[in-house]
Amino acid sequence: MSILPLETWRKIIGYAPWSFWGFADNEIVPLTSACNDVVQKYAWQDTDAAGRYDILQAIEQAEARLTGYMRYAPAPHYIVEEHPFPRFPDERFDRLGYVDASGRWPSVQMNEGHIQKVGVLTRTLLDTDAVVYSDPDGDGLDELATITTAVTFTDTTQVAVYVPAADRLNSDDVSEDYRIQPVKVSITGGVATIRINAWLMAKPILYEGVDRVVIDPTDSANFLSTVEVYRLYIDPTGITADTAQAKLTWETRPHPYWCVCGCNTNIFTPSNSLDPAAEGYAMARVALRQPELGIVALGQATYNSTTDQFVQTVNWQSCRPPDKVTIRAWAGKPLVNGEMDVRMQRVVAYFATAELARPICACQDANRQIYHWQFDLARTGGADGEQYGAISADDLNCPYGTRRGHVYAWKETRDMRLITGYSVV
Fold first, then answer.
1. I need a surface site. Which of 37, 83, 97, 391 has the fewest CB within 10 A?
2. Given phi > 0 = left and psi -120 to 50 = alpha, else beta, which region is 8?
3. pTM for this model (two decimals)
4. Dihedral angle sign, alpha carbons of residues 145, 148, 151, 155
5. What is the pLDDT of residue 363?
6. What are phi and psi of 24, to 5 degrees?
């Protein structure tokens, strides 16, 4: 699932909201021309036009490429990274405890920077609530959906809205594919009030037809009557290897050495320590040492329910360090007012537009903004667009490509990337 909501892409590109989400009728939301046609969910539902699914894939591709280049995501998202446990440069030496050369907990350099929190992504159902539709501007069309639900927290970014089970396709489990966003949330007196644009609330089944889909926005039966509201947050308090901030993993040793670690139940107990493919696990706690650069410290810990504290209780004098560590984190460029930074929104939107293989409808006038960001700057024109050379040598070095959206994204982000430096002492 993309970090930038598809609806935010639509707003930046400037496409009409109702027709983009498949709605039209003869009066309030008319189709005035072929250029103003409704956008389908899938490309195969239309002719020579990308669907919303194609756009979503382009956004995901843009975010992945930006993250790989900048070494952090354009907004926070959940990551799970596996790394070798830190070892000394001289392989003749091994650790006998959780300490580095400076006397601190050993550190790990993660692939992504801007680590915001560590822990497991947790989705907890708050309630299934009714949706109330209204017409704030009095144009005869209900544009606003409002939901209220009781909460025990105050962080509005933890409120997530999903399509209810009754309206999910094929009895699917709840997932980010069924999340409705963006939403506007306010919390007062233990009650969250959620406001959503009504064009995001069509029942999913209406988008799945084999023919062209046009939904009547005046028929209330086409809209969700209830939604599931969840608390979506990072839980740092897990006390097992599967729920902890990090997990340490040991491979078993060959006989007769397997029992040196495998028989120490304080560290781990594999189901079969004689099995070369077996692994043992222990939970670990993570400290944010240099979170912006993605550097974290860690150590094995157990939870003491009497003192309500995590403590490190195991030494390795009769064992060896773990072979690898799995770290769970919430990482990415910090949100601004609960949303992706506006500058980064434009970067992702224009980059994604450049990634699209075709426009969203056949008429060029309705796609002028899209065509602008898809134009290949390496072309100078010609009858068939075969002449090249107008782009500067600097822009030709763009690692994303030579379309205008690619070059724009590169110029915006090349001074924002995290670069790892090394020194020789």
1. 97
2. alpha
3. 0.89
4. positive
5. 56
6. -170, 150
Four-residue CA torsion sign, 278, 284, 287, 292: positive
Cα dihedral 292→155→60→414 (10° resolution): -30
Q: Which has the closest alpha carbon to 300: 319, 281, 279?
A: 281
End-to-end Cα separation, the chain, in angstroms: 44
For residues 45 and 49, give the distance between their C-alpha atoms in angstroms, rounded to a whole number.
9
User: Crossing angle for the helix pair 342-355 and 6-13, nearest 10 degrees?
Assistant: 90
Mean pLDDT value across residues 23-36: 71
How far apart CA 303 and CA 306 sit, in angstroms, is 9
Spatial contact of 359 and 370, defined as CB atoms under 8 Å apart: yes
> Above 80 in pLDDT, residue 73?
yes
Question: DSSP assignment of 141-173, as one string?
Answer: S--EEEEEEE-S---GGGEEEE--GGGSGGGPP
Residue 93 has a CB neighbour count (10 Å cut-off) of 9
∠375-378-383 over CA atoms, to 5°? 75
Instruction: Give me the residue spans of the domains in the chain.
Output: 6-72+336-413, 77-119+237-331, 121-235
Q: What are the pLDDT digits (tens) for 233-267?
A: 999 999 988 999 999 888 877 766 655 454 444 44
Tokens 């309206």 — which residue?
167
* Rg of the Cα atoms in the chain: 26
